[in-house]
Amino acid sequence: MKGIVLAGGSGTRLYPLTVSTSKQLLPVYDKPMVFYPLSVLMEAGIRDILIISTPSDIGKFKQLLGDGSDFGIKISYEVQPSPDGLAQAFIIGEKFIEGDACALILGDNLFHGNDFNHMLREAVIDAERGKSTIFGYPVKNPQRFGVVEFDSEGNVIGIEEKPVCPKSDYCVTGLYFYDKNVVDYSKTIVPSKRNELEITDLNRIYLKKKSLKVNLLDKSFKWWDTGTFDSLIEASDYVHDHYVRTGYTINSPEQVAFNQDWISKEKMLALSVRYGNSPYGAYLKKIAEGKSNEKNNDN
Questions:
Q1: Partners of 133 in the beta sheet?
Q2: Which of 30, 199, 214, 228 is most buried, with most CB under 10 Å away?
Q3: Entry pTM
Q4: In angstroms, rounded to a whole number, what is the distance separating the alpha carbons of residues 131 and 29?
Q5: What is 1-243's CATH number?
């Protein structure tokens, strides 16, 4: 299974923070934002990952992430010349995907919750068997998102992009697991009024073919689209509070790799040195040296 992190766009809602840098490189407490979606794909067991970003920012991601070997994975890079829709990621990544099933996560999405690892692994298995999965989450402002519509028995019967009158408060989050047909289906999408290849239209194709599963996340689960000042602060506060309360950070790609035996203790110690005297470097050293009773599974 392949994975894509879409880290493009201009991030205008975060101006002036993003005038000179990518939104996905902004800090969310102790890590760059892109570490969080990257960790989600790694938690799903995906080790072949494509980063898509803008022509001006792609070099910064290469400098930060390299070839992925620090995380026990392989990272490739492609450029999205202009933000022409989320579904465009699969067309840009066609050679990378090579006809395999593929997951897509948006570079500004942060997920955390109990049993999430199991949900991710299940979504991978389903996609490889021809059943695609998206995730729904209840929000106060569904008008900003793609919204899931249900019938009287709770079955998903529709998905609508940024509706004026939403038919539910469940939005579609920025995490998608698709089967091997995703590139072919993406090529059939007609640009919307915004002149974008909408991910909602791709989801509708799968829904029409009765091969789309919507996994609903409840309020005990945490999800942020960190594209606004408020959500960026809320996500940072959550990661900070979790660390203070438990002694563990969340969505650390180095720790995910270490927990899954993709990198060795020696590699973790070397990575801790890379980050100098920072608390994050000290944290990786603590994990590598086993100062906790066991490897943490709550990432």
A1: 177, 213
A2: 199
A3: 0.94
A4: 36
A5: 3.90.550.10
